[in-house]
Amino acid sequence: LQHNLTRGFLNGVHFTSPTNGYINGGNKILLKYTQLSSIQDEAEKPTEFKLEQNYPNPFNPVTVISYKLPVNGDVTLKIYDLLGNEVATLVDENKPAGKYKIEFNVAQVSRPEMASGIYFYQLTSGEFIQTKKMVLIK
Length: 138
Hints:
This protein is mainly beta and 138 residues long. It is 4% helix and 54% strand. The N and C termini lie far apart (70 Å). The strands form three sheets. A four-stranded antiparallel sheet has the order 7-6-9-10, with no helix packed on it. Strands 1-2-3 form a three-stranded antiparallel sheet, with no helix packed on it. The radius of gyration is 23 Å and the shape is elongated.
């Protein structure tokens, strides 16, 4: 059974996800698009652990911290003050390999008022530990 899909009009396209979509057209045409290969997904998987510099830095009152995980594992991302006291725990769970962004909002910290100054954020996953500095300006 052959169909000539170039005849008729296409009326709409609707993607339900980055890898699945539908196209409808005249003469009862309904086409489904599905990505059959995960080559693109594999290419986007990180090949190494990486903790990015927060942005913006200095910040007030919100900043974003990005990190990459090349393997599945338990992950913690914590904020510390200059004395090494834990200020907040942003992540404490098992995560699949991938790229992540998390927002840190000073207003959501459960301890009393965070003062302007230098803070540190630390990513730990398995044997990987990396710490970066950030500055809060009020």
